[in-house]
Amino acid sequence: xxxxxxxxxxxxxxxxxxxxxxxxxxxxxxxxxxxxxxxxxxxxxxxxxxxxxxxxxxxxxxxxxxxxxxxxxxxxxxxxxxxxxxxxxxxxxxxxxxxxxxxxxxxxxxxxxxxxxxxxxxxxxxxxxxxxxxxxxxxxxxxxxxxxxxxxxxxxxxxxxxxxxxxxxxxxxxxxxxxxxxxxxxxxxxxxxxxxxxxxxxxxxxxxxxxxxxxxxxxxxxxxxxxxxxxxxxxxxxxxxxxxxxxxxxxxxxxxxxxxxxxxxxxxxxxxxxxxxxxxxxxxxxxxxxxxxxxxxxxxxxxxxxxxxxxxxxxxxxxxxxxxxxxxxxxxxxxxxxxxxxxxxxxxxxxxxxxxxxxxxxxxxxxxxxxxxxxxxxxxxxxxxxxxxxxxxxxxxxxxx
Length: 401
Description:
The protein is mainly α and 401 residues long. The protein has 16 helices and three strands. It has helices at 26-35, 60-75, 80-90, 94-108, 113-118, 126-138, 141-198, 204-217, 219-238, 242-253, 258-279, 284-293, 298-312, 318-324, 329-341, 344-400, and strands spanning 3-11, 16-23, 38-45. A hairpin with a 4-residue loop joins strand 1 (3-11) and strand 2. Helix 2 packs antiparallel against helix 7 and helix 7 (141-198) runs parallel beside helix 16 (344-400). The model is unreliable at 49-55 (pLDDT under 50).
């Protein structure tokens, strides 16, 4: 597929001209310019980043399918350019199709596959491009692509588990708060007017509910809502700064139940990413830098970057990891064994598998614990409101008798 090239060159009169040409390669641009009696001095391909809106987003699933198909083609002996051309026409995602077309043009122009991928960081991560570079250098691109697909699939499963752990209690809590708010704003005032017309002294639980209803339905409810919105906006603003991200992430890791899950997720992600990179032949210092950037938690990122500095100074990987105090002792001991036996990649994969199971168990335990607690909260709150509202009616029936 033709690409747009920006050029500048010298005419026969000695003047400098520049412009753009649509051509399939730089050689074709040179030929076209010479026909116009222009001697080219600079020719660069104009790279247009794909516009990836909401509808055109390239998902992890799209990348996995493409990677597996491409690995099969490479393994079958199909040329790189031909494989990219076939898949650019075959993939359903239009944005990915455009990106693959551009990558194919770059490879045809003389770029390596890894360098072509690096031009599209929004679609292919730094980890992906570096592993491909290692695969090209070692002549095992098909093996590396299969490892990448397996890695992305496992990362997707881990992300899904964490989202499941966060979404369930959030949804149930939101429904509980909404139900209680509707009762307090619309139902309780009706009873309150009826009790006011009857006169007399109301029981304490009824007074508490009426006061709370008046507060929520009045200015107090608006103030509470404004405080909640202000808190959310403030946290979002704080997380835009480097120090703010680190402070928020440190708090998240210290939370009673969620903090433990996040730590296990961090360990699983670190060991899985590092193990995949090491087994693919990526240098350990490059691997640590990539792993730090993809950690997803600033505390873990800073810890891994400190470990990288220590490794660059000649220390082992396990020693600075133990000093970082982010990873459990078991992890650092197993990494030390892996380094001493020369099987670091295999040991990292075993740790990742173990902590994937740990995350599964932690999420299952959290769901099992949160479900009855939320049900008790919702049932207890609604039950208390109902009883408080009917107490004066019971009292009135007793007086009538």
